[in-house]
Amino acid sequence: MRFRFTRSSRKHKIGREHARAAMLNAVWVETRHSDLGPVGIFVGTDDRGLELEIGVVGANETVDMWIVLHVMPRNFRD
Fold this sequence. Notes:
5 strands; 78 residues; mainly beta
């Protein structure tokens, strides 16, 4: 699976490699809706042990590239 990161995905200063590491063990949490269509929200732990929330467009089996719109430490939600 390939990922493309938008500018907004860098808002919380989480690097692409950390986000990729988190996606390797991420689980789907919910689907939200945006102007771009459904956004899959995943939660996974990166290579530093930090739990990340990742928002992805194109999160289905028929595309080979997911567009990452959102990456944020999960503890920001609390």
